[in-house]
Amino acid sequence: MTTTGEDHVAVRGGPWWWDRRRGAVLDVSLAAVSALECAFEGVPFAREAGIPPAVGVVFGLLAGAVLVVRRKWPVAVVLVAVAITPARMGFLLGVVGLYTLAACEVPRRIIASLAGMSLVGTAIVTFVRVRQDLARGEPTLGDWFVPFAALTISLGLTAPPVLLGLYVGARRRLMESLRERADSLERELQLLAERAEERAEWARNEERTRIAREMHDVVAHRVSLMVVHAAALQAVARKDPEKAVRNAALVGDMGRQALTELREMLGVLRSGGDGRRERPVVPLAAVGAAAAAAASRVAEDAGGGAAEGPCLDEIGELVGQSAAAGMVVDLSVEGEARAYAPEVEQTAYRVVQEALTNVHKHAAGARTRVRLAHRGSEIAMQVENEPPPKGASASSARLPSGGNGLVGMRERVVALGGVFVSGPTDAGGFRVSAVIPAS
């Protein structure tokens, strides 16, 4: 983890404007040394100016102590250093002040202006002092030595702290930028991991919903027919033994078909593995990609499982099973039959299957019409039943209803971009219609 931004601010523990206590100790120490230096240099300055030495000492102490605010007001420190340059005071104050000014977040033009002022002031004072010293000593050096010495000393006192400060400031800004980028990258990776987890959770929810629909379709239809046949078997067991045997055989067939379809779905679930194997720890940088890949695999498994199931060719058998259970049902097919995508055929089959199951549950004995239309770019299906005969509005088998059949059909059709409509008819029956795009 990095400590940038708000986290970086939170670790500050220094007093006043200092970020850290050691920074405060360093500045106070430098200010004390600078104050002592300026106090000693204030004595000869006072003698030359004709004022009491105590005044020069106090002036030096005040001027040198300005270095304590170098982090908060570096411009003021440099201006004080330039101002006391004629008094030959503040060597440490000027060097540290220029370094701090160049290292802090100050516009370059201000740094250049103040550095130029310090250079010129130091050069002028040095020129005058060297010339006076040479004049008192009657040197044999040429006239070139005075400006050379003034320029060399002024550059030596100005250029190194400025260049060092610029380097340290640039390096500090670079490190802060790298910390901010690392922190931003970490937040982005966490966000990607969260989004990938959300996608994986969504895919798992979709798969659970799909499995629930499949289980509902298989159990509701097959078991409903088994209950109807069992009720008929109970009614005719003593009166018509042969018919009872046929009904018993149909119940057995329905049970075996239901078990077969359940085994197929359970096989699809087991083929994906239980996902409980331990996984090695991976860096955070790989979390986003790994989670996204996991979400994609879950979604692919969900889509792949949807392709397993019945097809349109089995609708005739489906209608025949309902007819064998005592329903008066007619099947009509319009258009030229052709192959569709597996998920389209499965959805169409399930819509017809659930509609017939609802007729068994809620309109036992009602005449039912199943229509299937093959069109150019879509396939349409409709299951419509008439009102049940009087006295037979409820099934004698007392079939329970979960209330999820119509919801599941709508979800299936809408997921493929189709249209689903259901509702009562004017004649008192019920109609279920669906149109599914062919591709």
Automatic annotation (TrEMBL):
<feature type="domain" description="Signal transduction histidine kinase subgroup 3 dimerisation and phosphoacceptor">
    <location>
        <begin position="207"/>
        <end position="272"/>
    </location>
</feature>
<dbReference type="Pfam" id="PF07730">
    <property type="entry name" value="HisKA_3"/>
</dbReference>
<feature type="coiled-coil region">
    <location>
        <begin position="168"/>
        <end position="206"/>
    </location>
</feature>
<keyword id="KW-1133">Transmembrane helix</keyword>
<dbReference type="InterPro" id="IPR011712">
    <property type="entry name" value="Sig_transdc_His_kin_sub3_dim/P"/>
</dbReference>
<feature type="transmembrane region" description="Helical">
    <location>
        <begin position="75"/>
        <end position="98"/>
    </location>
</feature>
<keyword id="KW-0597">Phosphoprotein</keyword>
<dbReference type="InterPro" id="IPR036890">
    <property type="entry name" value="HATPase_C_sf"/>
</dbReference>
<feature type="transmembrane region" description="Helical">
    <location>
        <begin position="148"/>
        <end position="170"/>
    </location>
</feature>
<dbReference type="GO" id="GO:0016301">
    <property type="term" value="F:kinase activity"/>
</dbReference>
<keyword id="KW-0808">Transferase</keyword>
<keyword id="KW-0067">ATP-binding</keyword>
<keyword id="KW-0812">Transmembrane</keyword>
<feature type="transmembrane region" description="Helical">
    <location>
        <begin position="50"/>
        <end position="69"/>
    </location>
</feature>
<keyword id="KW-0902">Two-component regulatory system</keyword>
<keyword id="KW-0547">Nucleotide-binding</keyword>
<keyword id="KW-0175">Coiled coil</keyword>
<feature type="transmembrane region" description="Helical">
    <location>
        <begin position="110"/>
        <end position="128"/>
    </location>
</feature>
<dbReference type="InterPro" id="IPR050482">
    <property type="entry name" value="Sensor_HK_TwoCompSys"/>
</dbReference>
<protein>
    <recommendedName>
        <fullName>histidine kinase</fullName>
        <ecNumber>2.7.13.3</ecNumber>
    </recommendedName>
</protein>
<keyword id="KW-0418">Kinase</keyword>
<keyword id="KW-0472">Membrane</keyword>
